[in-house]
Write a structure and sequence with these properties.
By secondary structure, the protein is of the alpha/beta class. Helices cover 32% and strands 23% of the residues. The chain contains 22 helices and 35 strands. It has a seven-stranded mixed sheet with strand order 5-4-17-16-18-19-20, with helices on both faces. Helix 3 crosses helix 4 (53-63). The chain is globular. This is Acetoacetyl-CoA synthetase. GO terms for molecular function: acetoacetate-CoA ligase activity; ATP binding.
C-alpha cells in the first residue's frame, strides 16, 4: 500500500537539555546505578524491555515504589497468551497510589465546561469527597467485585465517583451521556450493576439535553440496581420523582469519613471498558488494579513525560478509554484538566483558550480536531499565550503529515508532537511518543516500552518497511483479564488470537520503519472508530434495520490518508420505498439518539443487496479495503462470496470515489 506518510528529515529534534531532563533519561540512569544496565538509546532500552519482560516490569515496580500490603511472589507466571498472570501474591489498591500524591501546594483537578468558568478542585476537597462517598458506597452494600456504573460527562464528580469505587474494590464502568439508551443498556445490562451515578442532563454545543427520562428508562432496563445517585448538572435540584432508590449527590457526600483502601489482588478488576466487534454485544473488557497501575505509570511518566506540577489534558468523554488514561495523570503528581462540552462551541478556539487560562503543559486531542482547526484557518499560536505548552498528543486516528506541520507552523515550532496509537483493549498505547527522539511528520516515534509490537504478514512473518497486521508477541500487564460473561474465553480468543494463535492481533495496519518508528494505516477490521470512540457495526445495524423501511444494511468507516474519517451507510430498502430526505433524516436521528452523534453516517446510499460470505457474514472489511484504495483482487476472493454480483457495486463505487 503506497503511503503519503513519512519524511526523510525530522520536523523536530529534542535539545540536549530536553533529553537530559526527560523522565526516561532519569529512569535509564537509575537502571545503570541500581541494576548495572546501560543502554545507548531508547531503542536499545525498548529491545531489553521486550526481551527481558520480567526484569523490565520488576524494575518499574521498584522504580515507582509500588505500595503493596503483600509482596508478589512471581513477576510473570508464563508468556502464554491469553493466560499470563502478573505479580501473583501481591495485594494493593490503584486509588491508594493516586492519593499518596495528595498535596496542599497544587490542585488535583482543573475543570471547565460550556456552563462553568475555570474551577480548581483541591486535593483536600477531593480526598474529603472520595472518603465520604466511599463510606456511602459501603453503606449501600457495595462490596469488592460489585459493579458501579456511571452515565456522566467529564466532570469532577465522575473522578470522585470512580476513585471512591476503586477504593472499596468495586468495579467501575462508565458511558458518556451523549450515548443513546440502546448503547448504554447493551453495555450495562451485561455486567449487572448495583449502583448507578447519572447526571440530570448536560450541555453540548450550547444546547441542553435532559437525561432524566433516560435515567427512568435505565432503572427499568437494569433490574439489579439498588441505588441511583443523581448528580445535579443542568438544574440545582432535579426532581427524583419516579426514580426508585434515588438520592442526590449531596446526600452521599454528607457524612465525612476517613478514606481507606481495600487491599485487593494485583489482578482484581478495576474497571470494565467496551470495545465492539462486528457481531454481537459490545465486548465488556475487564482490566485490573495492578496492570493498569503499572501501565499508566510507565506510559504517562516515561512516554508522555509528565512531571510533578505539570498540567495534563486530553479532550475526551467518559465513554472513551482516554478518560481513564487522563485520570492516570494523577499517578504522576500532575494536575489533570477536565473539559466538558463541544470543542467547537462557540468556536474551535475554545480549547486553545482553555489551554491558555489553565497554563496547560500537555494538550491531548484527536487527529480529527487538528484537521478541523486546519480547515477553520485558526492561529492558536498568535491568539493565545501557549508558552507553558511542551507537547501535543494526538490519537483516535492517524495524524497525517499536514497535521504535524500545521502544529509547528500555527501553534509553536518548538513543540513536541506525540502521535500515539493503542486501544481500549489495553487502555494505553502500543506505539507511542518519546520526548528524547526526533519527530518525523506522519510517523509515531516508537514502540511502547514492554510492548513487543511487530508488523506481520498473512503467514505470521515479521515485516520492516512493509504494511502488515499490528501484533503483540508478548503479554502486557494491562491486557484484559477476561471479558465479562465469557467464561470459556471464546470471545476473548476470537477477538485477538484467532488469526495468529498465541499472538495478539490488534486489528490495525502498521508499517514499522528501519529507525523503529511506525505509521498506522487505520483499522484492518470493521470496527467503526470515529473520534477515538469505537462502535461495532452490529450496534448500528440493530438501529437501522429496526426501521420498517430497511431490509438490510452495511456500514464501513474509512480513515482518509490526509486526515478525516469517511462513514458511509448502505441500505437495502423494502420494495416501493424510496430513500427521500425524510427517511435519511429519520435514520440519522435514530442513530444520533440511540447510538451517538459521532456515528451518524456521512452518506446514506441505496444498494440492491449486501455482499456476504458463504457463511452469511457481511463483507465490511473487503468493502473498506476497496474504499482505502486496494485493488479488487487484494480486497476479496469472489469465490468466498454467496452473492459475488453484489460486490461489483462497491468496486464501481470505490473507483468513482478514490
Amino acid at each position: 500500500m503506497d503511503t503519503p506518510f513519512g519524511e526523510e528529515q525530522p520536523l523536530w529534534t529534542p535539545s540536549e537539555t530536553v533529553i537530559r531532563d526527560a523522565n526516561i533519561s532519569q529512569y535509564m540512569h537509575w537502571l545503570t546505578q541500581e541494576r548495572g544496565l546501560h543502554f545507548e538509546d531508547r531503542e536499545a532500552l525498548w529491545r531489553w524491555s521486550v526481551e527481558k519482560l520480567e526484569d523490565f516490569w520488576a524494575s518499574l515496580w521498584s522504580y515507582f515504589s509500588i505500595k503493596a500490603s503483600q509482596p508478589y511472589n512471581a513477576v510473570l507466571s508464563s508468556h502464554t497468551m491469553p493466560g499470563a498472570s502478573w505479580f501473583s501474591g501481591a495485594r494493593l489498591n490503584y486509588a491508594e497510589h493516586i492519593f499518596r500524591n495528595a498535596t496542599s501546594d497544587r490542585p488535583a483537578l482543573l475543570f471547565r465546561s460550556e456552563r462553568q468558568a475555570l474551577t480548581e478542585i483541591s486535593w483536600q476537597e477531593l480526598t474529603k469527597n472520595v472518603g465520604a462517598l466511599s463510606q456511602s458506597l459501603r453503606a449501600m452494600g457495595v462490596q469488592p467485585g460489585d459493579r458501579v456504573v456511571a452515565y456522566v460527562p467529564n466532570i469532577p464528580q465522575a473522578i470522585t465517583a470512580f476513585l471512591a469505587c476503586a477504593s472499596v474494590g468495586a468495579i467501575w464502568s462508565s458511558c458518556s451521556p451523549d450515548f443513546g439508551i440502546s448503547s448504554v443498556t447493551e453495555r450495562f445490562q451485561q455486567i449487572e450493576p448495583k449502583v448507578l451515578f447519572a447526571v440530570d442532563g448536560y450541555q453540548y454545543g450550547g444546547k441542553s439535553f435532559d437525561r432524566l427520562p433516560v435515567i427512568h428508562e435505565l432503572q427499568k432496563q437494569l433490574p439489579t440496581l439498588q441505588k441511583i445517585v443523581v448528580i445535579p448538572y443542568l438544574k440545582t435540584e432535579p426532581s427524583l420523582e419516579g426514580i426508585g432508590h434515588g438520592v442526590l449527590w449531596s446526600e452521599v457526600l454528607r457524612e465525612p469519613a476517613e478514606l481507606t483502601f481495600e487491599q485487593v489482588p494485583f489482578d482484581h478488576p478495576l474497571w470494565i471498558l467496551y470495545s465492539s466487534g462486528t457481531t454481537g454485544l459490545p465486548k465488556a473488557i475487564v482490566q485490573g488494579h495492578g496492570g493498569i497501575l503499572l501501565e499508566h505509570l510507565k506510559a504517562l511518566t516515561l512516554d508522555v513525560d509528565l512531571k510533578p506540577g505539570d498540567r495534563f489534558f486530553w479532550f475526551t468523554t467518559t465513554g472513551w478509554m482516554m478518560w481513564n488514561f487522563l485520570v492516570g495523570g494523577l499517578l504522576t503528581k500532575s494536575v489533570i484538566l477536565l473539559y466538558d462540552g463541544s470543542p467547537g462551541y462557540p468556536n474551535l478556539e475554545t480549547l486553545w483558550q482553555f489551554a491558555q487560562e489553565s497554563q496547560m503543559s500537555f494538550f491531548g486531542t484527536s487527529a480529527s480536531y487538528i484537521a478541523s482547526c486546519m480547515k477553520a484557518g485558526i492561529e492558536p499560536g498568535q491568539s493565545y499565550d501557549l508558552s507553558h505548552l511542551r507537547g501535543i498528543g494526538s490519537t483516535g486516528s492517524p495524524l497525517p503529515p499536514e497535521g504535524f506541520h500545521w502544529i509547528h507552523e500555527h501553534i509553536r515550532e518548538d513543540l513536541w508532537v506525540a502521535s500515539v496509537s493503542g486501544g481500549t483493549d489495553i487502555c494505553s498505547a502500543f506505539v507511542a511518543g518519546s520526548i528524547v527522539l526526533p519527530v518525523y511528520a506522519g510517523e509515531l516515534q516508537c514502540r511502547s516500552l514492554g510492548a513487543n509490537v511487530q508488523s506481520f504478514d498473512d503467514a505470521g512473518q515479521p515485516l520492516i518497511e512493509e504494511v502488515g497486521e499490528l501484533v503483540v508477541t508478548e503479554p502486557l500487564p494491562s491486557m484484559p483479564l477476561f471479558f465479562w460473561n465469557d467464561p470459556d474465553q471464546q470471545r476473548y480468543r476470537e477477538s485477538y488470537f484467532a488469526t495468529y494463535p498465541g499472538i495478539w492481533r490488534h486489528g490495525d495496519w502498521i508499517r514499522i520503519t528501519e529507525r523503529g518508528s511506525a505509521v498506522i494505516y487505520g483499522r484492518s477490521d470493521s470496527t467503526i472508530n470515529r473520534m477515538g470512540i469505537r462502535m461495532g457495526s452490529s450496534e448500528i445495524y440493530r438501529i437501522v434495520e429496526g426501521l420498517p423501511e430497511v431490509l438490510d444494511s452495511l456500514i464501513v468507516g474509512v480513515e482518509r490518508p490526509h486526515g478525516g474519517y469517511y462513514l458511509p451507510l448502505f441500505v437495502v430498502l423494502r420494495p416501493g420505498v424510496e430513500l427521500d430526505d425524510s427517511l435519511k433524516a429519520r435514520i440519522k436521528s435514530e442513530l444520533r439518539t440511540h447510538i451517538s452523534p459521532h456515528h451518524v453516517p456521512d452518506e446514506i446510499l441505496v444498494i440492491s443487496e449486501v455482499p456476504r460470505t458463504l457463511s452469511g457474514k457481511k463483507l465490511e472489511v473487503p468493502v473498506k479495503k476497496l474504499l482505502m484504495g486496494l485493488p479488487m483482487e487484494k480486497a476479496v476472493s469472489l469465490d468466498a462470496l454467496s452473492n459475488p454480483q453484489a460486490f461489483r457495486y462497491f468496486q464501481e463505487f470505490a473507483s468513482q470515489r478514490n
